[in-house]
Design brief:
667 residues, mainly alpha, Rossmann fold, 5-stranded parallel β-sheet, 21 helices
Amino acid sequence: MHSDAPAGSAGRRDWRGTVLWWGPRLLFVAGAVVLVVESSRGVPLPELYAALGFFVLCSAVFVGRQLGIGHEPGPGAQAPRWLIRAAALLSAAGAAVLAAHVAGVDWDALPLVGSVLLLLGLGWFVEAWRGAAPGRPRTALLLWGTALIALAVLTAAVAAVLLPKAKGSLFGGLLIALGAALFVFLPLGLNLLSEWGVRRLRIRRSAAGPGAGVGLVEAVALVVLGAVALACLWLVYRDWVLAAVLVAAALLLLPAVVSNTHADVALVLAALCLLASAPPEHPEPPDVAGGRRVLVALGDSYMSGEGASSYFEGTDDGGRDECRRSPSAYAVGLTTADRRFDRVLFLACSGARTFNLNPASAPGPSRVQPGEPGTQIDQLASRTPPVHPALVIVTVGGNDAGFAILGEACLAPGDCVTQKPVFVNNLAKVRRDLVATYRSLRAAVPASVPVVAVPYPQPIAAAGRCSGVALTKAERDFIRAFVEQIDTTMREAAHAAGITYMAEMKDSLAPQRLQLCQRRKGAAGINFVDLETVNGLAAQRFSPAKWLHNSLHPNERGHAAMRAAFTTWLDSHPELLPPAPPDQEPATGSAAAEPEPLCGMTFQAANAHCQVRIRAWELEQVRSRWPWLLLVLFALAVLWAASIAAVSLLPATGRPYRDPPARARAR
């Protein structure tokens, strides 16, 4: 017997069917590969945006195709064999790549490549799992989905209890288990329960008849989704931009998960690669050789310019050199806009403490920061040919006082004011360390060269209300008071060491209304919470731990105001007086009268490190606020249920869900 249809026309139909099945899917994978490769290479932003645009186009084609064909087969249908095999291949490849990374294979992009392969493979497994069920709700979907979500919740709860005290391999194992719960079990469970819910609603609508229209459940769901979208706009209006972004992400991601179109995979991958895009870099400033009026800038991140959108080449490499020296730092701006200087010796480094400035020959502690050739004072003294400084400026002490740890504590749940003794009791030791460092710096440059200690600008205004800044009035007052205490400590140490103190820098942001709470966060001179990754290795750039370093630091606007304040101060001091002989340190009472530090600000301290103590307190604050977590989860559950009802309004099927047609042949 022979087929009634001509063999040629059947072959053409088979070819077109194969292209329609494989084309959009392979295009989606190709777009993902291009985006991942470009992201892992750390290409400039225009190239990354081009790769992102290509991926978005490929994703739109594939998602549109998935919506067109539907994913609800008829009774007795089975998942296409090619889909299951491809999913198994991608998942196995991703797991193997991640295992190679854990085993110590030294290739930078392994974690990213393995995660993306596993993400794509699991997405195809979910599609096959959801599409293989008959056209009626299956109890298996409900049971498996509930079991996976329960497993994710149980794992997260156990990790929350054990992580604060876990160490070594147990800590790493708990992190892996928590990652599997949040990024594997939970999405799989949500997908299966979503499929069960969509089919239940579609059966109910089908039973109501073709003229029933939109039911009450679906109408309420559309109202909920519209209300969430309006809430995003309201949050933006109230300057809660990050909260609006999080709500908008949930509004997009949950319907994408429910739709079974791989739109969730596309959203996660695009967001990850965009967040981890390497910021632009600039050539290093000109060498000081030949400069006769060199400005020497030493200190920490407030001097180096951390908080900007770009840095000098080689100073923002994650895991290597993270000094983050920026061309927008006010010290660099002084040498380009002020004729009193012709070069800058820019040695300031983010994260620097007093022992990162101290020379190796100093009696006190001395340590070189990663990626640097020596401590900052040693670099200054070892320059060949020698530097001819006209002025030396230094800002240091904030990291010794734990200001970064304080910012982290105040951003966490709970009232950071309760931890005030942890920070205030360390200031007496900070003062002694500053005196020693200032004296070492004073001895490292000629006596005729002025050395100026520059304090920290006040970052927050004394406002009663502050929209968009997630700090209570008490926390804002505490931060303001603590910055004032650090600056006072610097002033006392500068006077004791015989160097100049520039008090005017403290209020440099206020005249132009650049402090937080003076205007909208986007126009302030201080970043509140700012997402910016690092350059260098992909494993570093894609690590969320590297995304918040710009927070609570002056940005380009802030450094422009600081430069203006410094220029005004220089104009009022045309000839800085030579430094006075070192004074005797002012009496502060007996040693027993000084506050006893509750913990150390360095890991070498005999007592516990303050950061360890504060992190434990933060975890306890998170755990003690579990009712709020339940409220957030309830809100997400409502949004998820609304997404299920909205997606159920889409057509159930387009074309039959089957294997690509085999070529017709004569029998």
